[in-house]
Amino acid sequence: MKKVLVLGAGQLARMMDLAGAPLGMDVKAFDVRTNNVVLPIDPEHIYGDLNQGIAECDVITAEFEHVAHNTLATCEASGKLLPSSEAIKIGGDRRLEKSLLDSCNIANAKYVVIQNKADFDSAITSLQLPIIFKSALEGYDGKGQWRLKDVEQADTIWQEMSVFINNASSSIPQGIIAEQMVPFDREVSIIGARNSKGEMAAYPLTENHHTNGILSVSVVTSVDKKLQQQAFEVFSKLAEKLNYTGVLAIEFFQVGEQLLVNEIAPRVHNSGHWTQQGADTCQFENHLRAICGLPLGSTQLIRPTAMVNIIGEDDIPEEIFTIPTVALHWYDKEKRTGRKMGHINLCGQTELELAERLVRISSLLNKESFPDLSEFAENLLAKASQ
Amino acid sequence: MKKVLVLGAGQLARMMDLAGAPLGMDVKAFDVRTNNVVLPIDPEHIYGDLNQGIAECDVITAEFEHVAHNTLATCEASGKLLPSSEAIKIGGDRRLEKSLLDSCNIANAKYVVIQNKADFDSAITSLQLPIIFKSALEGYDGKGQWRLKDVEQADTIWQEMSVFINNASSSIPQGIIAEQMVPFDREVSIIGARNSKGEMAAYPLTENHHTNGILSVSVVTSVDKKLQQQAFEVFSKLAEKLNYTGVLAIEFFQVGEQLLVNEIAPRVHNSGHWTQQGADTCQFENHLRAICGLPLGSTQLIRPTAMVNIIGEDDIPEEIFTIPTVALHWYDKEKRTGRKMGHINLCGQTELELAERLVRISSLLNKESFPDLSEFAENLLAKASQ
């Protein structure tokens, strides 16, 4: 039995545990807030501290990229950490991410690194408006971000941003990436896996829809071979450059037929949750297979599938269980505004059937927690009905 | 969050736990050997005794039918037991099972109940040889069974059988059911669910293959509407007669176009494990939905699927992971001859693809632990290639 320690004890560790148990794997999680090693699906059970966790496991991995660097160093010293601390750090620092993309000649949005006022001013002159400013070290789900649409906003934004840079609690100097906003057609992501033998496999490109900066719906209905190949090339370049082991997620802006990398996540990813019901092997199992030295599982789409995030809500009407293929995944977390509490996976034999079921779901869910799901579902239905 | 207590802490409770966690259900198991309430996927965690378990849960169910009657009575007195103790007891006593079938006018093999030598002699005269004798209270997976093919064996068999009847450790008097052996074409089973509102749903009939009296392979490739209807009628008659709540499994002998009931199991069933990968909703989730008062999930077949039991073996070559759709399910049990240790689910877009994959799997698994899997796979391939 392989023993896996996950850095982070959130929903991704939990779903790794649920995927690993049938494989005979023993998955524990290191909760960075309490410094305890716990059972991911029932964190009341404590197994000791990080050193014990490291000593007792066969392999260490991470469910998030903002792990303290000394923790990563301790784990890496054991020789058990996969992917490498280098890869995890790149996911946690947009400056490293951007240099990696440039060094691999991978298309991404034009940017400037900002450490001070001079950088800020030069960003405004060298990039076209609108510009999006993203903190280098934090900032996913819309946190630590500013949008500059008009030069008149510059002073206000710089004031906030300089406070943010100077107040960074991290031991690593904070910084900002100024990025020219891309007038993209849609956002897509590829979830791929590479195992310790260098074998690679990737899931079909997922189309992602964000609401207030947070992923709200992902959908996969078919495979666009050309785009898939373009995305897979980016995935394989990065995975090989990093000698990566595990699941790696890459978010893109699609502009016409071109994909520009937006973000890299060195881990299983929210936009890959649909694979639990929609793919031959789910991303959690493939991550575990990869880091445990097993052959990767097929990443083939079974049938059109969508995932709806449940954000800041812990009460879903029972009636959704009447819709065929609805698979509800709760994370067992306390309700908090903006918090990812769970997700719903949904399939259809055809894109039309999936769209019809999504329309039914959206009619049952409340508008406050799922503000634009109906619109998304109706659009999918219109597209599928053509 | 619904709290469920399962009587029995084996693989069925474990798989209920894994299916219940994403639904936000808290599944615990009562281990009848240690009298402890434990976490099914990690039974080292003890939560107290039966009374505490009953007090702290919302609903009680069972993973096996041979629960001590006083335990069932204690659970039923709490008002939380589903299905009823009556239904569970019927599954645990072939005499009750046979009377139920007769009272519902459901076709089953001709039989005689044996308590003494006179019953035994009359069975031999009133039933045609060969006769199979099955202990009323135990005896699944081939235990507590005798086959009489020739009258000359009668004395030897009766000697063994009378010792068996008199040595019964149970508080309920042991007995034997003598059944005329049915020259069946194949063995099939239906797994159905009925929820507390009386809604019912059943999975497509599963074809089952036994090796040395133990289920070795189950396969579902398509739906035969007529047979399905016949099986569903039996299921619904029994489920309604028992005012049943939960998943109920019924095993049949198929003789020509007729189904004769062989056995009833008031629980999730080994021949329904394929539903984890092959159906819209798996049997474990549907059992939990049923007993928790939720709408049932779709029981539709996604694509042709097979399940291969892993018996008495804890080492499977890693190479099977290279076969697409292989889903391995270990039960985390200590290796013992004849013990169900896990199972492999396998799918194909077509029956042919499934059969080809099954042939590949059978070539990788050792013949000692999977003695007739190759033959089964080759037969399926021949049938699918027609």
| Integer tally of domains of chain A | 3
**Given the C-alpha coordinates, what overall shape of chain A results?**
globular
Terminal Cα span of chain A: 51 Å
Multimeric status of the protein: homodimer
Order of helices and strands of chain A: EHEEEHEHHHEHEEHEEEEEHEEHHEEEHH
Q: Which CATH class of the largest domain in chain A is shown?
A: Alpha Beta
List the helices and strands and how they pair.
The structure is a homodimer of 386-residue chains.
Chain A: E1 3-7, H1 11-20, E2 26-31, E3 36-39, E4 42-48, H2 50-56, E5 59-62, H3 69-77, H4 85-92, H5 94-103, E6 111-114, H6 117-126, E7 131-135, E8 145-148, H7 154-166, E9 176-180, E10 186-194, E11 200-202, E12 206-211, E13 214-220, H8 225-241, E14 246-255, E15 258-265, H9 275-278, H10 283-291, E16 305-311, E17 327-330, E18 340-347, H11 351-364, H12 373-385
Parallel strand pairs in A: 1-2, 1-5
Antiparallel strand pairs in A: 2-3, 3-4, 6-9, 7-8, 7-9, 10-11, 10-12, 10-14, 12-13, 13-16, 14-15, 16-18, 17-18
